[in-house]
Automatic annotation (TrEMBL):
Annotated ranges, domain Catalase core: 29-417
Identification of the protein by name: Catalase
InterPro entries: Catalase, Catalase_AS, Catalase_clade2, Catalase_clade2_helical, Catalase_core, Catalase_haem_BS, Catalase_immune_responsive, Catalase_large_C
Entry keyword set: Heme, Hydrogen peroxide, Iron, Metal-binding, Oxidoreductase, Peroxidase
Biased composition range(s): Basic and acidic residues: 1-25
Regions crossing the membrane: none
Biased composition (Polar residues): 408-419
UniProt EC number: 1.11.1.6
One Pfam family hit: Catalase_C
Record has Ligase as a keyword: no
Cofactor: heme
Keyword Heme: yes
Amino acid sequence: MAKEPKVHENSKDEQLEQYRVDDSGKSLTTNQGLKMAEDEFSLKAGERGSTLLEDFHFREKMTHFDHERIPERVVHARGYAAHGVFEAYGSLEHLTKAKFLSGKSKKTPVFVRFSTVAGSKGSAETVRDARGFSTKFYTEEGNYDLVGNNMPVFFIQDAIKFPDFVHAVKPEPHNEMPQAASAHDTLWDFVINNQETAHMMMWLMSDRAIPRSFRMMDGFGVHAFRFVNAEGKSHFVKFNWKSTLGTHSLVWDEAQKIAGKDPDFNRRDLYDSIDQGNFPEWELGVQIIAEEDEHKFDFDLLDATKLWPQEEIPIQMVGKMTLNRNVDNVFAETEQVAFHPGHVVPGIDFSNDPLLQGRLFSYTDTQLLRLNGPNFHELPINRPVCPFHNNQRDGFGRQSINKGRVSYQKSSFTNSTPAPVSEAEGGYSHYQEKMEGRKVRARSESFKDHFSQATMFWNSMTEPERKHIIEAFSFELGKCQETWIREGAVEMFTNVNLEMAQAVAKNIGVIPPTSGGSDITKASPALSLDNTVKSPATRKVGVLVDKGFNDAEVLEILEGLEAKGVQYEVVSEMQGKLKGSRGKELEVDHTFTTTDPVLYDAIYAVGGPDVSKKFAKEAARYIGEAFDHYKPIGATHDGQQWIEAAGIESQPGVVAAGDASSFTSSFLEAITAHRHWDRQVE
Ligand code: HDD
């Protein structure tokens, strides 16, 4: 047998190289390779005459254009992706025979697509929603897809309800509103009629639903899967991606404004970071439960509305993923990539989670429509990097030219090849779980506690996080037109926490409940974003500068920020170069009209000796918005006047004094804290 090529870090890139085409500098041809002498005028019967049917060039160009859209994904339509590499920390052979997890420094190429769930392909990115986090590992044993979200639980327990949930959250069918938003009657009608949604709705109302960046969010495989080792021993496993930059969020007012100012905010951040060599990284962590411990917990492992508290079931880090290359073509790669939780490799198997079981049908089915038939695995982005052979043939867009007269099993012509191989030789074999029971349409009693973990989530939040959850409920339910929906939601979420439900009720004109609530006191500190990594290297500062600025000090401060990985953009009244007091120059990145305070994590106001009224007005606006969004604000030199005028000089996170070096260290400290929740914001 011919030796199979070894998969390495660049295997996918090398494979894709065969398909890349650079059209620049070439002669224009038709798709048949015919060079054309003219491409601006259609062929006409006389200069002012009608266009002729024989104009094959016009027809080809127009037909291709007319057909260049494909159906968008029914969910997760708005997405963005990048290439990278996964590197295993060591061997997990005692748990799984999956080869990509089998050795220290073993490298596997990956392709990762992030997405919102509800919005259409062109919708804004900073909406309140879960985020998709799909990873395709191009392993030597075939493609393994980990198709997760940035939240560890899901809305429903059984896949048969997925179309109902999605219909409820999508724009309402009679008027197709609202786009990419859960704040409307049908979603909340679904919620109150399906109380299994309680836990996930708590996540959706939390800051996790408005990530600052795709680079700064975690990922979760959600379901219990199985690891199976070479001896056939199985463990339940949950997959977790942990961002090395920490998990960071926007505030709601800011998120809504960004949706207008820069609807591409999240993809721009990812693209620019990778482009600048600032590669995002995640560690892959696994939580393991032995088969014999399946029933030892106060939740059912098969219920996707439950998480495994990491204080009880620790996360073991098994590798690191780095995204290091942007795509060459978004349609060919990001749009045509086809993920499927059923794309597994030996050593990874399924649990009986009824949500997962339904997904195993849905994903291939949707690609058949979206990518027009059964040959989507041949598209360059979807092709495994290992060889694939079977007797499947034909279908729209088939590219392989399978040789020979045999396309069936068993055949004496081919000695019945391609032939299945034994497990020992790497053949996939399903875990032999013992099954018994009656065929029923039912739900296990063990799935019926919908509120304990929702309360655990609430218990784990800090005061500012709780305030945001109450505000989110008030916004979402406040947008619902029907009073009974608001009342129903207050009644339902009283089961999570009485004070929370009372606060929401007051805001939305519902009589606050006086009794009920939960007696669950359990908390999982890891769920609070307060406990995440905070680094200045995730922050971008808007620097407000005008001509004549004190260049010696300001440039020293900017260098000091940059040395800690802080990015900055110079914002001024007009584009071009600004000359400082000693002749040093700063290039303006943006004017007040091309950017906005919501696009920065902090503001540094410098100004200049002679700013215009417009500059002063904009500076006050930038500082005011940053203040309201709890962001660090620094001011030196002429910039200090705006801090004084706003009366905020002694507020937390506002740094407006000191020489260059003491200002830099205090401002860096304020930046590293990210948001200053203890600030008095009216
Ligand atoms: Fe799904 C896409 C994640 C439940 C049916 N899903 C899709 C994507 C992600 C998820 C990240 C986008 C993939 C990409 O980037 O191309 N889905 C989840 C998670 C779920 C989940 C974490 C619960 C744990 N999904 C789920 C159920 C069903 C589906 C229960 C149906 C039974 N999902 C689909 C789909 C999509 C999809 C309709 C649309 C586009 C696609 O598959 O390729 O088949």
